[in-house]
Specification:
By secondary structure, the protein is an alpha/beta fold. The chain has helices at residues 10-13, 19-34, 110-126, 142-154, 167-177, 185-190, 232-237, 246-252, 254-261, 272-276, 298-316; strands spanning 6-9, 38-39, 44-48, 53-62, 67-76, 87-95, 101-106, 134-138, 159-163, 180-181, 194-197, 216-219, 240-243, 270-271, 290-293. The chain has eleven helices and 15 strands.
Length: 318
């Protein structure tokens, strides 16, 4: 008979993790993913256009790990109108030797947001044009707010500017994060070395010709074929394109849209994890436009779930 399933609520798990250790765990997971050490099929997706929502199911196992993870994450983007959070979800950790469920994290989407923030920080840092860059963030939700905090961990001295659809919410978020408010998209692009897109947009947020030489783009919001943040032609202008997973990005992200449009080839990217693992080096030319396209990997979910599970095991034996 299996042991009872341990269940942990957000209040139980949130105090246990710190950004620095999550960034380190996610980095290692991305490196192992690109090395082919992660069993991770394409994610399942449900869309609910009538209420502007979606649900993502990701699952995977890192070779040699004692656990595997099934994660469900939802985003219902009109929820703030009724006082509900946009993000929700849970992670279920299984024993990889017996198949028995070990624990359920009712994290309300928090672990997904944190592991995404870790990848964003790594992506911003890897091709940052200068040590203390000006960072423009498009979006005002949870991921935008986390980006200001986590990018500052890896790029001390970075300054932040926000742009959102709702002026009052943008101002509120900017005040909370210590960021400036951009008066327009043109202003944000003109005053940013790094541009991070964190929206559920269905159409490109700006035109490719509006990007400036030397800018670095980190795209995180387009994780389904119905979403788009970057214009396809931006990929044609890019000197470097990194993807977290080629197959997943071809199916779900802005890179895939650019390939289907015919402006770049399907093999014109390099693996983000390979760069993090120093399997190749890139010399960033001052005028290069560079892009990291992130769709979110099961490897990241496994990384944060295993890190948290280890902390809980330590806590139980104290």
């Amino acid at each position: 008979m299996s042991d009872p399933l341990s269940t942990y609520a957000l209040k139980d798990i949130k105090p246990l993790l710190q950004p620095g250790e999550v960034i380190a765990a996610v980095k290692e997971a991305l490196i192992r993913h690109s090395a082919g050490e992660v069993q991770s099929p394409l994610p399942g997706q449900l869309t609910f256009p009538e209420v502007n929502g979606d649900c993502h199911i990701k699952y995977g196992h890192i070779r040699g790990a004692d656990q595997f993870v099934v994660k469900i994450a939802t985003g219902f983007y009109d929820n703030p109108q009724s006082g509900q959070p946009v993000n929700n979800g849970l992670m279920l950790l299984f024993d990889a030797r017996t198949g028995a469920p070990r624990c359920l994290f009712q994290d309300e989407g928090w672990m997904t947001a944190w592991r995404t923030a870790a990848a964003v920080a790594l992506a911003a840092h890897c091709l940052a044009p200068r040590p203390a860059p000006r960072v423009g963030i498009i979006g005002t939700g949870q991921q935008a707010q986390l980006a200001t905090q986590w990018v500052a961990v890896v790029l001390p001295g970075a300054t932040f500017m926000l742009l959102g659809r709702d002026a009052s919410r943008t101002r509120e978020t900017a005040d909370r994060c210590g960021a400036r408010v951009a008066s327009s998209m043109a202003s944000l692009l003109s005053n940013s070395d790094i541009v991070i897109t964190t929206t559920p947009a269905a159409h490109a947020l700006f035109a490719a010709e509006d990007a400036h030489p030397g800018q670095h783009f980190v795209a995180v919001g387009a994780d389904g074929p119905e979403k788009q943040e970057l214009p396809p032609q931006l990929f044609a202008r890019a000197g470097v394109i990194l993807t977290d997973d080629r197959a997943q990005c071809l199916a779900l992200s802005d890179f895939g849209r650019a390939v289907r449009t015919g402006v770049v080839l399907a093999d014109s990217d390099r693996a983000f994890g390979d760069m993090l693992g120093a399997r190749f080096t890139l010399e960033r030319k001052p005028a290069d436009i560079t892009i990291v396209d992130l769709t979110g990997l099961a490897a990241q979910d496994i990384a944060i779930a295993n890190l948290l599970f280890g902390k809980l095991q330590e806590q139980a034996h104290q």
